[in-house]
Amino acid sequence: MKQAIFFLFFFFLGCASTDSHRTVPTFSLEELEKRTFDYFMATMDTVHYQVLDRYPTRTFYSIAATGFGYAALPIGVEKKYITRDRAAHIALHALRQLAALPQNATSDASGYKGFYYHFLDLKQAKRYKDVELSSIDTGLLMAGVLTLQSYFDRDNPQEKEIRNLADAIYRKVEWDWMLNDKGLLSHGWKPESGFIKHDWEGYNEAMILLILAMGSPTHPIPDTCWANWTQTYEWLNFQGEKHLNFAPLFGHQYSQAFIDFRGIQDDFMRKHSSDYFINSRKATYANRAYCIQNPKNFKGYSENIWGLTACDGPGHKRLTINDLEYQFDGYSARGASAKYV
């Protein structure tokens, strides 16, 4: 069955900085798109067909990054970066490997009940250290899997097998098992301790997770879960933009990368005469406006240097900059919103 998953990858055009001490190389949109595609191809392993969590550090694979890597293949074909036959070859081997990864309740596995561990080790693509069986990262992985199923639609043995494998992988995910008695999906599960205490409440990147879980042909969660998800929505004014707030930009982008939300409204968006596409655009405008305003006077922020989202930092330490002391972190879901600046 062909899945209605649309991949709308977002790319950002770099511009020259107004800071006289720094310059940012100017790339064409075409070059930036090509470099993004090349990144996924360069960081996708040729044995397990998993994508590294980061580069150049080679620590572990990320199943979410792998989902985006899968989805990059159809874009590469459409942009003529890769032939359809070569992309189908990669997709087929990737899905074969994914389907063959061990799934059981022990810690020595790649996943359980159709879900996969957040990070996988580089040797066997099994659980990395003590990470959780991740609901959202599995969701992003499945979005990539279904993108391959939707795109490779020709009547030949290679593309037929891609569709069959993708369908089987998606059908194995027991989304309803991850649902708690509050009607919310858990962030994840560990074999040592069970379900993680945190649940997915809106608004954030997990919109794609709920949609895939509700649409499952084998283990769907009730439609009422969407109303449960929206109960914690916050419609606030930030930087002159009234919108559904979430601080890091990735929360506004990940679901949009796979589904075209233009014109699609639920009760909440209908009430505010908006939709999730418009909302993400407003969040982007607000993020940029905050960086232009630069209330904490960080060096480099400008109309061309912006886009606060999850990233690495200098580490968990306090640093003095321009005679002011700041607390920094390592990796953090950075961002800006009405309640988070």
What does this structure look like?
This protein is of the alpha+beta class. The chain folds into 2 domains: 1-223, Glycoside hydrolase 144 (GH144) (Glycosyltransferase, Alpha/alpha barrel); 233-341, no CATH class. 36% of the residues lie in helices and 11% in strands. It has 10 helices and 13 strands. The chain has helices at 29-43, 63-78, 84-100, 135-151, 157-172, 207-214, 224-230, 250-253, 267-271, 276-293, and strands spanning 61-62, 111-112, 115-117, 119-120, 133-134, 188-190, 194-195, 235-238, 241-244, 310-311, 317-321, 324-328, 332-333. The strands form 5 sheets. A 5-stranded antiparallel beta sheet has the order 2-3-5-6-7. Strands 1-4 form a two-stranded antiparallel sheet. A hairpin with a 3-residue loop joins strand 6 (188-190) and strand 7 (194-195). Helix 3 (84-100) packs parallel to helix 5 and helix 4 packs across helix 6 (207-214). The longest helix has 18 residues, at 276-293. The protein is globular and about 60 Å long. The N and C termini lie far apart (44 Å). Mean pLDDT is 92; it is low at 1-21.
Overall tally of structural domains? 2
Q: State the CATH class of the largest domain.
A: Mainly Alpha
Q: CATH architecture of the largest domain, please? A: Alpha/alpha barrel
Q: How many runs of DSSP E, i.e. beta strands?
A: 13
What is the N-to-C order of secondary-structure elements (H for helix, E for strand)?
HEHHEEEEHHEEHHEEHHHEEEE
- The poorly predicted ranges are 1-21
Reported for the largest beta sheet, the result is: 5 strands, antiparallel
Report, as a whole number of angstroms, the end-to-end distance: 44 Å
What is the average per-residue confidence, as pLDDT, rounded to a whole number?
Answer: 92
Helix content: 25-40%
Read across the widest sheet, the strand sequence of neighbours is: 2-3-5-6-7
CATH topology (level 3) name of the largest domain: Glycosyltransferase
Shape field: globular
Report the total helices: 10
Rg of Cα set: 21 Å
What name goes with the CATH superfamily of the largest domain? Glycoside hydrolase 144 (GH144)
Class computed from helices, strands and strand pairing:
alpha+beta
